[in-house]
Design goal:
heterodimer; A: 295 residues; alpha/beta; Pyruvate Kinase, Chain: A, domain 1; 6 helices; 6 strands; 60% helix; elongated; B: mainly beta; ATP Synthase, domain 1; globular
Chain lengths: 295, 83
């Protein structure tokens, strides 16, 4: 029979762990609500911007636009991967998934660039930064500090930096890897090309785009809109990842709290059994002792 | 006319207005009722609106895009300066 004291110590340790995990779950739930609000706030802006851009692209369908963000025929072939993870752990496989995908891409799709040393990483989130630093990958920048205050202006500054790197021909392809937020329990691992920009022209354009007055003119408007949409795209990715992180943490901590509760039940049962056994033993000793004296 | 001023972070203003003056790329211009449909990029500068009661409202934006269509104005501002 297990030692009573050992069980008692174990029980109190599991109880305090449960307290921590259930508190973390509450905190994650509160942060998740805030993160979801930011995404909801962003949506009308992003939708309208895309609508205007799609309308313009449709109007300009036949004209060849000089687009500095478009694909280059001759380039250096250098690749930049932007890996977005979280700063903190305890959120299940959230970070591991992103890191695994990034390593997979580097080994498969960009294996050649990897060998030539033409591949660099930009990390957002300490988890990716630490992992890839340890593995001695080429990290050109780390923006983990974005999470201290997640505002559009700060993310936009990073987006501007990425555009600059692309325009200065430092890199020919920039890809994002992050967790997309589906709902509190589901994150979707996403990889998307950030630059070059592909101009999607809505084939089934419903509103006649021709009846607008454009000021200054269509081409300059669209070239001004592209950087705006790119800033929004990065901001959305970071917000998505942040919300997904909170969701993943909430789920992981919920799971941990449930496990702790189960463990506490088992331990309590064990403890009571041991206690009863000890009492029975003592009773037996007292009774048989008295019996011996009377005998 | 109905106007919405939106930034990526939040909804700045939405409501009925009589007139709006915005800092267009080719110079400041005013939008009144039944303005022709227009899409214009905006520079940094003040957005001055007169609401239904004739009160003047002012927001300083750092740039953006405006779309006017059928007495419905949507102003996407990059950011709005406080104060």
């Amino acid at each position: 029979m297990a030692n009573l004291k050992a069980i008692r110590v174990r029980l109190s340790s599991v109880k305090s762990t449960r307290q921590i995990t259930s508190a973390m779950k509450m905190v994650a739930a509160a942060k998740l609500r805030k993160a979801q609000d930011s995404i909801v706030q962003l949506r009308p802006y992003a939708d309208k911007l895309n609508e205007i851009r799609a309308g313009l692209s449709a109007a300009l369908r036949d004209t060849e636009i000089e687009n500095i963000y478009a694909e280059r025929k001759k380039g250096t072939g250098r690749v930049l991967l932007v890996v977005i993870t979280s700063n903190k752990g305890l959120c299940g496989a959230f970070n591991a998934n992103v890191i695994r995908e990034a390593r997979h891409i580097m080994a498969e799709k960009y294996g050649e660039q990897m060998r030539r040393g033409d591949l660099a990483l930009m990390t957002v989130g300490k988890k990716a930064a630490d992992t890839f630093k340890k593995l001695k990958y080429n990290i050109m920048a780390d923006h983990s500090d974005l999470y201290t205050a997640l505002t559009f202006d700060r993310v936009a500054a990073v987006a501007d930096r990425l555009m600059e790197l692309y325009l200065s021909r430092e890199y020919d392809t920039i890809e994002l890897i992050y967790n997309q937020f589906k709902n509190a329990a589901v994150q979707k691992l996403t990889r998307e090309t950030y630059l070059p920009v592909t101009m999607e022209t809505d084939a089934g354009e419903k509103s006649a785009p021709a009846d607008y007055i454009y000021e200054p003119d269509q081409v300059s408007i669209i070239s001004e809109l592209i950087p705006k949409t790119l800033r929004i795209q990065l901001y959305k990715a970071v917000l998505d990842s942040f919300a997904a992180e909170q969701g993943a943490r909430m789920t992981a901590m919920h799971q941990a709290t449930d496990n702790a509760t189960e463990l506490i039940r088992d331990l309590t049962l064990q403890y009571n059994k041991a206690r009863q056994a000890a009492i029975t033993n003592q009773l037996l000793e007292v009774v048989s002792g008295a019996e011996a004296l009377n005998g | 006319m109905k106007i919405e001023i939106i930034t990526p972070d939040r909804n700045i203003y939405s409501g009925e207005v009589r007139s709006v003056r915005v800092p267009g790329r080719k110079g400041s211009f005013q939008v009144l009722k039944d303005h022709a449909p227009i899409i214009s990029t905006l520079e940094a500068g003040p957005v001055i609106m007169a609401d239904e009661q004739g009160n003047e409202l002012r927001y300083d934006i750092t740039g953006g895009v405006i779309e006017v269509k059928k007495n419905r104005i949507i102003l996407l501002a990059d950011s709005v300066l406080q104060g």
